[in-house]
Amino acid sequence: MNLDDVQSQPDLLQQAAEIISSGELGIFPTETVYGIGALYRAPGAREKLAAAKERPADQPFTVHIGSMEQLDELVNEVPEKIRRVVDTFWPGPMTIIIPDGTDMGLGVRFPAHEVACKLIQQTGPLIASSANRRGAAPPLSCKEAVESIGSEVAVAIDGGPCKVGEASTIVRFDQEGSFEILREGLINRSMIRKALGEFEVLFVCTGNTCRSPMAEALCKKMLSQREDVKVEDLPKHGIHVHSAALFSGGGPASENAVTAMRELEADASGHISRQLSPEMLESADLILALAPNHLEGIRHLCNGQKEVLDKLFMINATGVADPVGGPLEIYRICAAEISNAIANQWLERITKP
Q1: Is-catalytic flag, 310?
Q2: Environment class of residue 273 by beta-carbon count within 10 Å: exposed (0-12), middle (13-18) or buried (19+)?
């Protein structure tokens, strides 16, 4: 049935809802791809949907909702951090796995498609997946969905071509409010952290064993003092400080860097050098290069991507000289220069959530 204009065809939508409510499978549109769904609480629905998709019955399906009231019916309590994310991105192309006391959690999606929402408001929550058999490409039109899996359904709703045409971002939250992205779509890590009121700063130098580890350690110390929390608790308060190398050989921070930090009551003893990646640049909210050559190296790595360049700066006007191979006193001078730059130029730009 064609439901391009759901407002003018309420009888057709009701008919489709009744068919699905009777226990049948149905194809329906979302903004990302076409889905195939069944009633969430219907006996045998999961097994029926799994058989149609030709995938294991114990593989979880996402629960699709048509209103925020339905979310509250599914989950006893939605943690504050998750509530911030859903308020920002729902309805939209994001699936959130919410802690529910089980090992798997509950995956929930609120599609930004009028037909899908109106349908689910009438049926109640649906367990659903893309309307294709296992291994096939997700369909972007009702015609493609019917060709792929139409023999398994009792009704197919044509709501026009999918506007996004890309699978939703899947993000898993734990009980502490930390999250990991299992699949990235249009909504990326930086956007999620912004919704959570979080901030990430990234220091970059050549080998990530001298200057940038000291900058990371000093920045963490200053932020812990400002926020009156332990350094190890900064991530719980939404503040993330990292460092990376243009050319990492692995290994710990240099001995003199660790000593210089200890003298300033900062800790670089557990640091391990890591290689800078485009993903790190995309994730960070503020990127500070320790010298002009680092700035150029980052520009090259990101291919001049504006989103990266807009948050890329030198730590100070001239950069910080490399202390590698020098005596401890050179590291002390380097540390003092880094400390002054962070305190005077950047500390207040690292946003408090």
Answers
A1: no
A2: buried
- Is the residue at 63 inside a domain? yes
Q: What are the pLDDT digits (tens) for 160-214?
A: 999 888 889 999 998 877 889 999 899 988 889 889 988 999 999 999 999 999 9
Same domain, 16 and 136: yes
What is the phi-psi region of residue 322: left when phi exceeds 0, alpha when psi lies from -120 to 50, beta otherwise? beta
Contact 45, 39 (CB under 8 A): yes
Kindly state whether residues 231 and 309 are assigned to the same domain. Answer: yes
- 117, 158, 211, 219: which is the annotated catalytic residue? 211
For 16-65, how does the pLDDT look when each residue is reduced to its tens digit (9 = 90+)?
Answer: 999 999 999 999 999 999 999 999 999 999 999 999 999 988 889 999 99
From residue 252, alpha-carbon distances to 151, 209, 213, 280 in Å are 59, 6, 9, 20
Task: Give the number of other Cβ atoms within 10 Å of residue 74's Cβ.
Answer: 16
Beta bridge partners of 200: 240
Q: Is residue 267 annotated as a catalytic residue, yes or no?
A: no
Catalytic (active site) residue 162 = no
Chain-centroid distance, C-alpha 85? 10
Catalytic annotation, pick one of 117, 142, 162, 205: 205
Q: Rounded distance, CA 270 to CA 253, Å?
A: 8
Report the pLDDT averaged over residues 122-150: 94
* 176 shares its domain with 201: no
